[in-house]
């Protein structure tokens, strides 16, 4: 899982906040409830103490222990209701309630209140094997005697209620976490699916299919606006590409007419009888330049046509190995002439589909380059094979190699590694960009690896036409059968 | 031979007309599509050379009008556009040949001649230049009676040069004829083959036949060079 994805971050923030809110809310509820239960227990104890105090005052303080015990037991039945009641006067105990039925505490073990006793106080009593006891102490004057009345109750019910309350809170937290993550994930996924579609489509769009547009989700939200904005951007790109293409085509066209005139006139002139040899030579030199200019214009025009996606006008199936073989044969004299040996490692039956003449140009250009930049005594190897389900062709030389900083620019138009040298060899600087444009138009790739002084390897990868081979064979068989 | 040239670029029209007149053609020049069509419909021509980008009436329209009226006159299209689809469309519309600017005049001439069924169409079986003899049937080459062994590419190259003795062939023409258009950017292959051919055909003999015309190309001729 990508921890930096929007989906992951949104879900984790969302789940984190939800949990935090739940914990804070739960703690607040718990605390409120505990507070309320405590106060109401305290209030009921205080009420009871006051009732006993009233009982004592109404009797004017003249109560004996026995009457008091009967009175309290009758009225309040402390053992049964789990209460603790103790009345003392002047250091002498008048009444102590018995053990409660649930034996949650021992009345005899309850410590005496501190001396001097405040008029009214609430305290907790704890012993190891007891449930905690809340004790309300009230001091009252009845007649001339001072009584200390203590009423207590176990805190156990409060704790039971709070524990009961804790259970759903503790279970609810992970449940909420799971629901938050799952729900958030589903929600985010639904929201981000169009983003994935937009990304994939945008990946696919290149200069060859600028006519394509991103899908626009009809949701009237940010994503719709985003894809509409991107589509408008693609339209603008398309317009500017179109403009460049048109410009290039127009420029090539406009250049051709004057070139025709120059060439025609010079050819006429060079053929005129009685021309001094020096003049003939300089006209010849101009004609050579005209030829080079014409080749550059042709190259640019070829590129502009490839850019316009015109490479696929002719699609035939053919054997790349056989094409490489015959082209190598045709060019072997060129290598021989330079003292470069040409070796082949070509497997047959590597069927590709495309424009044969243009792909042949790829072989010619790469081979011509390799021969040009390999000194006498070097070797150029042409290899064709199938690797990873793709047709692969490599042209390797052990020539001068290409400096590393030049490699990324090698397929750019008019780029030259060594300006002086390549011009002297008559290149226009378009050969490799034409190779790249042709490969791109065939869904192929061209790569270069090179080490200075050790040589270079240009490799071309093209999709195999194997998938349609059977159908083609079948149709030929079928037509033979007819 | 009467020839109609419909071309709006004055200078192109001028040098083509001049060159053709030097080859003893009668050339009429029309500077726009409308007058071109008028002239083509008024007169009988042996050949029409038609530029595609014309004012008033497009070359494509002129082509189809001429074809509707006269089905036999050979029409050669000159154009500065060379998209394959367009080429096919014009061939279908009735063009006989198609030449892309900038062209070498020599190439235009070769194409015109083959359209007019003059020159090489009456194929001779044995071509001769001075003591050099090329037999198209046996594919044997001899000079002064001595047999010369050539590779098949060298043979095609020599045959092409000897098909029009004294005519200069541009490297592009040679490449298109002997190799194919994939080699177009690569004119040095022609130079290499010419060098090999010379080593076999010319070097052992005092009289050199294969001549380089700088900037233009190569030709084979018995006339001494200037």
Structural account:
- The complex is a heterodimer of chains A (482) and B (226).
- By secondary structure, chain A is an alpha+beta fold.
- Chain A folds into three domains: 6-160, Beta-Lactamase; 222-307, Orthogonal Bundle (Helix Hairpins), CATH 1.10.287.130; 313-470, Heat Shock Protein 90 (2-Layer Sandwich), CATH 3.30.565.10.
- Chain A is built from eleven helices and twelve strands.
- Chain A has helices at residues 6-58, 65-76, 78-81, 156-204, 222-270, 277-307, 320-338, 356-372, 419-424, 431-441, 469-481, and strands spanning 83-89, 92-96, 120-125, 133-142, 145-154, 316-319, 341-346, 351-354, 379-387, 390-397, 445-451, 455-463.
- In chain A, strands 2-1-5-4-3 form a five-stranded antiparallel sheet. A five-stranded mixed sheet of chain A has the order 7-9-10-12-11. A two-stranded antiparallel ribbon of chain A has the order 6-8.
- In chain A, a hairpin with a 7-residue loop joins strand 3 (120-125) and strand 4.
- Chain A is rod-shaped, with a radius of gyration of 50 Å.
- Chain B has two domains: 2-120, Rossmann fold; 124-220, Orthogonal Bundle (Arc Repressor Mutant, subunit A).
- Chain B is elongated, with a radius of gyration of 20 Å.
- The chains are: A alpha+beta (482), B alpha/beta (226).
- Chains A and B meet through helix 5, helix 6, helix 7 and helix 8 of A and helix 1 and helix 8 of B.
């Amino acid at each position: 899982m990508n921890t930096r994805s929007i989906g992951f971050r949104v879900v984790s923030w969302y789940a984190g906040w939800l949990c935090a809110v739940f914990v804070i809310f739960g703690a607040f509820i718990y605390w409120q409830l505990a507070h309320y239960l405590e106060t109401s227990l305290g209030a009921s104890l205080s009420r009871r103490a006051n009732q006993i105090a009233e009982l004592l005052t109404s009797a004017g303080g003249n109560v004996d222990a026995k009457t008091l015990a009967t009175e309290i037991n009758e009225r309040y039945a402390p053992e049964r209701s789990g209460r603790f009641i103790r009345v003392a006067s002047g250091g002498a105990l008048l009444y102590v309630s018995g053990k409660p039925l649930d034996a949650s505490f021992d009345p005899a073990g309850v410590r005496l209140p501190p001396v001097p006793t405040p008029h009214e106080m609430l305290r907790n009593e704890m012993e190891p094997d007891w449930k905690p006891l809340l004790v309300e102490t009230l001091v009252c004057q009845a007649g001339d005697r001072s009584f200390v009345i203590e009423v207590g109750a176990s805190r156990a019910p409060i704790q039971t209620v709070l524990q009961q309350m804790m259970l759903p809170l503790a279970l609810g937290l992970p449940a909420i976490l799971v629901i938050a993550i799952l729900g958030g994930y589903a929600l985010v996924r639904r929201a981000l699916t169009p983003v994935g579609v937009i990304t994939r489509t945008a990946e696919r769009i290149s200069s060859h299919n600028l006519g394509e547009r991103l899908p626009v989700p009809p949701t009237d939200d940010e994503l719709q606006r985003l894809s509409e904005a991107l589509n408008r951007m693609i339209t603008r790109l398309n317009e500017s590409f179109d403009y460049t293409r048109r410009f290039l085509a127009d420029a090539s066209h406009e250049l051709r007419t004057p070139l025709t005139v120059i060439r025609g006139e010079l050819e006429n002139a060079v053929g005129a009888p009685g021309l001094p040899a020096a003049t003939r030579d300089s006209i010849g030199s101009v004609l050579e330049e005209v030829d080079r200019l014409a080749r550059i214009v042709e190259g640019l025009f070829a590129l502009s046509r490839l850019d316009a996606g015109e490479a696929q006008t002719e699609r035939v199936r053919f054997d790349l190995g056989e094409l490489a073989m015959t082209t190598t044969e045709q060019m072997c004299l060129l290598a021989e002439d330079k003292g470069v040996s040409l070796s082949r490692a070509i497997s047959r039956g590597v069927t590709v589909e495309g424009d044969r003449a243009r792909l042949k140009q790829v072989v010619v250009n790469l081979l011509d380059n390799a021969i040009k930049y390999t000194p006498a005594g070097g070797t150029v190897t042409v290899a064709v094979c199938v690797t990873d389900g793709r047709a692969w062709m490599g042209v390797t030389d052990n020539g001068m190699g290409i400096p590393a900083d030049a490699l990324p620019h090698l397929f750019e138009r008019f780029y030259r590694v060594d300006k002086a040298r390549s011009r002297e060899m008559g290149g226009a600087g378009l050969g490799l960009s034409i190779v790249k444009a042709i490969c791109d138009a065939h869904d192929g790739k061209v790569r270069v690896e090179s080490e200075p002084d050790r040589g270079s390897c240009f490799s071309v990868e093209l999709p195999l036409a194997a998938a349609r081979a059977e159908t083609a064979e079948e149709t030929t068989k079928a037509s033979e059968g007819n | 031979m009467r020839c109609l040239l419909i071309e709006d670029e004055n200078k192109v029209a001028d040098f083509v007309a001049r060159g053709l007149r030097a080859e003893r053609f009668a050339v009429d020049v029309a500077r726009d599509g409308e007058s071109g069509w008028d002239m083509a419909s008024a007169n009988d021509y042996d050949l029409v050379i038609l530029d595609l980008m014309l004012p008033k009436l497009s070359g494509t329209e002129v082509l189809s009008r001429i074809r509707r009226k006269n089905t036999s006159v050979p029409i050669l299209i000159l154009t500065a556009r060379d998209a394959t689809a367009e080429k096919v469309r014009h061939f279908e519309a009735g063009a006989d040949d198609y030449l892309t600017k900038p062209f070498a005049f020599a190439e235009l001439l070769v194409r015109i001649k083959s359209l007019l069924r003059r020159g090489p169409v009456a194929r001779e079986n044995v071509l001769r230049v001075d003591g050099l003899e090329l037999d198209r049937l046996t594919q044997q080459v001899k000079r002064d009676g001595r047999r010369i062994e050539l590779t098949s590419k060298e043979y095609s190259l020599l045959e092409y040069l000897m098909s029009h003795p004294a005519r200069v062939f541009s490297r592009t023409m040679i490449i298109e004829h002997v190799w194919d258009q994939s080699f177009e950017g690569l004119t040095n292959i022609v130079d290499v083959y010419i060098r090999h051919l010379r080593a076999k055909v010319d070097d052992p003999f005092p009289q050199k036949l294969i001549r380089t015309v700088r900037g233009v190309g190569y030709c084979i001729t018995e006339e001494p060079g200037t």
